[in-house]
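User: My collaborator sent over this chain with a note saying "see what the structure looks like." That's all I know about it. Can you take a look?
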Amino acid sequence: MGRLNEKGVSVVFVSHRLEEVLRVVDRIIVMRDGSRVGTLSATEANESKLIHLMVGREVGLFPKVEVQIGDPVLEVRNLSGPNGVRDVSLTVRKGEIVGLAGLIGAGRTELARLICGADRRSGGTIFIDEKEVQIANPADAVAHGIGWVPEDRKQHGLVLGMDIKQNTTLTILPRISNRFGAVRLKKEREIAEHYRNKLSIATSDVSKVVKYLSGGNQQKVVLAKWLSTEPKILIMDEPTRGIDIGAKAEFHALMSQLAQQGIGILMISSEMPEVLGMSDRVIVMCQGRVTDEYKRGEYSQVDIMTSATKFLNLESTFAAGSGVRPI
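Assistant: Without extra context I'll predict from the sequence alone. Here is the result:
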């Protein structure tokens, strides 16, 4: 964009990523609810001013609440799979938010798929509440108390043509169906209304089709779907991707509330401020392996990025050489 600008090309850049906006633009137009609410030059703008214009109120990002960390609720030992994950071991405790950091392609989502049974593991063991469990498919994961908020909510998290109440109860259909397999519609609506209120889903009617909701509200419906299973563990893959700054702050607050309730959260995120702001511990992956682990307050962006690129030179050397890859 900078090179195009130097050649006299005008660029309209639309983004939720405020750090990018502040770095590359000359003038910022802020919109809210379909209307223009402010214009700032890059020199007078800062993140706080932009957030206030976007949301219409003061918003505190990363409202991390310190909670009592409990016993291990999820532990994986030497987990490997044909999807590139190699000998990964990690632990998530009750009430703990563990950030899983790394570059795109580091194997974070692939690890989540192995834990949830979406991909078959080739080695390793999984423990829930310190007892070994067998997870061969996603149904097994749900039965053992694992919920998974996926990276792509439209493709993997929601059925866009269904309404809010149907999506909210997709994971608990046996629980709300009668002995003939028919869904008890009153119960379905009660559960959907409960989570509409609890998560502040912005709609007056849970019969609204989810494809007409904003990105932030769609993400809340995905979360409601998993909370209805009463999980012990939530794996949240890029939980605030593609949602506005107000919804992002709400989602962070919800994560803190869930941790306070004793749910263990494994949060996969490519947004460094989110990792730094919300994690009790950070585990870093590169090339399908864990490279480092940090406690809250004992790391910086530089530390995490150094760990996230730890094997890249080694891997590229092998790739460019004999064709033999390291074990």
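A starting point for your reply to your collaborator: DSSP finds 13 helices and twelve strands in the chain.
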